[in-house]
Structure formats: structure tokens, C-alpha cells
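Duplicate of #3305? Posting structure anyway:
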């Protein structure tokens, strides 16, 4: 198996809080990979360390055989990232943002124009291309961020919650674009809380909880005997029969 991403002994602490507790991961190339886990599991921290945005306390990360923290410039040229929170250049239009990203990636101007026009069209942003990013909706921001991450045709694409705030029609389009991209041998790693989405999109899944990897492997293996990934997930993270808020007896209709 060729690895797109290889993580060894990765640790990150924030003061007393251990966010990532020594994880090992081999993510296969050419797959659609889902990273799932409850709130605070350490997904964003892991993706930030893997993509060269946050320095690990310990451990190493290789992407397509290159050490991320030894040669970050080389690795960053080969990956695309849609980070959490998505800080974009708000006073540029969508079109200008893509032009800027493309030139920053070293693409010739004419090629940037060609690719930007195609991406804006496919992602249904052509009508809003001259609007400032600050005036974009949440879903439009995700889509322009995705376009910027894809523009230089990276080998591995990392997406933190790419479908959050995206309408169903756009989600279907994004799916199509990403499926086409992985079919050509590229790798997508994305984090999500939406199990149905992960189940329908991914070939390969890693489940994280409390800073550790609880299971990882092909979707069928991780799901095991469970009827759905959601059920397997609840078992893996030990959330079955958890507090459903029965003690919130003041909440709801009736006497006040
Ligand atoms: N900059 C930071 N300073 C202090 N603590 C942090 C920081 N970033 C993350 N943490 C803590 O590390 C843990 C993991 O956070 P992380 O954002 O990686 O989780 P996540 O799996 O992405 O969660 P979510 O699904 O809610 O986005 C949490 O307990 C969080 O409070």
C-alpha cells in the first residue's frame, strides 16, 4: 500500500490539555478518507500538524514520502488545504482571491484565469465572482476556499468540515468534483461529524476520540458488524446510552 500520509507518534499539548496523544496513522493514496470523532477529539489539531500549520510537540509526518516539518515548502506545494475557520482575504472578490492563490502557487496568469473560470463555473460561483469575499455566505466561503485549495491540482487535499453550511445542490457538486479528483489517483482527507456523509463518500475511515485513534481502516472493517457507521462510531467512542439530558426537567412546554 502506498501511503499518501504517514503519521508517527504525533503529540500535541496545550498546557494541561492533551489534544493529540501519540497517534500513528497510515493513510493510503488515491482514497477518499474520512477523519471522524466527537467535539474536541483532536481532529483539527491533527490536521493542522499534518499540513504544516501547527508544530507538533513530538512525532513526525510524511506526505507522499516527504517530511512535512523538515521540508515544509516542498510539501506545501504538493498539498491543498481547506482549514477550519477559513481565514480568507475578505476585501478581495472571489475571482481576485483565486487569481492571488494561483499566482502564489507559481502558476502562469493565463492558466490561473482558465482554471479559476472553470472552478467558479462548476461550483456555481460565477455569478458572485466579482463580489467581495466578506459578503459571501458560509457555504460560498467554503466553496471559494475549496476552489483555492484545488487550483494548483495538489496530490493530497485536506478539508476540515468541507460540507458545513453548504446547501444540498452544492454538496452534490463538491462530491462530484472530489470523486473525479480521487479517481485520478489523488487523495482527499476530510474531517466531518456527519456519519451518513462519511459512510457514503469514504473508502477509508479513521475514528478519533480523546486525542487517540480508536479505529482506522477500510470503511467496511471499521463499521464491522454494526448496521451503520453511526452505530459503530457510538460504540467506538463509548457514547452509547450516554446522558440524553433527562435531568433537564425544566426544559420544554407545560408549567413555567
Ligand atoms: N489553541 C488551543 N489552545 C488550547 N486548547 C486547544 C487549542 N486548540 C485545541 N485545543 C484543545 O484541544 C482539544 C482538541 O481540539 P480540536 O479542535 O483538535 O478537536 P476537534 O476534534 O477538531 O473538535 P471539533 O469537532 O469540535 O471541531 C480540545 O480539548 C480543545 O479544547
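Output from current build:
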Amino acid at each position: 500500500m502506498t501511503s499518501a500520509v504517514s503519521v508517527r507518534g504525533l503529540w500535541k499539548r496545550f498546557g494541561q490539555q492533551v489534544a493529540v496523544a501519540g497517534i500513528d496513522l497510515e493513510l493510503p493514496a488515491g482514497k477518499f478518507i474520512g477523519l471522524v470523532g466527537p467535539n474536541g477529539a483532536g481532529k483539527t489539531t491533527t490536521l493542522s500538524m499534518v499540513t504544516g500549520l501547527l508544530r507538533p510537540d513530538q512525532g513526525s509526518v510524511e506526505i507522499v514520502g516527504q517530511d512535512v516539518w523538515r521540508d515544509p515548502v516542498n510539501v506545501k506545494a504538493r498539498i491543498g488545504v481547506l482549514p477550519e475557520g477559513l481565514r480568507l482575504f475578505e476585501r478581495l472578490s472571489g475571482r481576485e482571491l483565486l487569481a492571488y492563490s494561483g499566482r502564489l502557487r507559481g502558476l502562469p496568469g493565463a492558466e490561473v484565469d482558465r482554471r479559476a473560470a472553470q472552478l467558479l463555473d462548476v461550483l456555481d460561483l460565477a455569478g458572485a465572482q466579482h463580489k467581495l469575499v466578506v459578503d459571501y455566505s458560509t457555504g460560498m466561503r467554503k466553496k471559494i476556499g475549496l476552489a483555492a485549495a484545488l487550483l494548483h491540482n495538489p496530490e493530497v487535499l485536506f478539508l476540515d468540515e468541507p460540507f458545513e453550511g453548504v446547501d444540498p445542490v452544492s454538496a452534490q457538486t463538491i462530491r462530484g468534483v472530489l470523486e473525479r479528483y480521487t479517481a485520478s489517483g489523488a487523495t482527499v482527507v476530510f474531517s466531518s461529524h456527519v456519519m451518513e456523509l462519511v459512510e457514503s463518500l469514504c473508502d477509508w475511515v479513521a475514528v478519533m476520540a480523546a486525542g487517540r485513534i480508536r479505529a482506522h481502516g477500510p470503511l467496511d472493517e471499521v463499521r464491522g458488524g454494526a448496521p451503520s457507521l453511526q452505530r459503530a462510531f457510538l460504540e467506538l467512542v463509548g457514547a452509547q446510552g450516554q446522558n440524553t439530558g433527562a435531568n433537564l426537567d425544566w426544559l420544554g412546554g407545560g408549567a413555567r
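Confirmed duplicate; merging threads. The mean pLDDT is 90. Residues 1-86+154-235 form a domain with the Rossmann fold fold (CATH 3.40.50.300).
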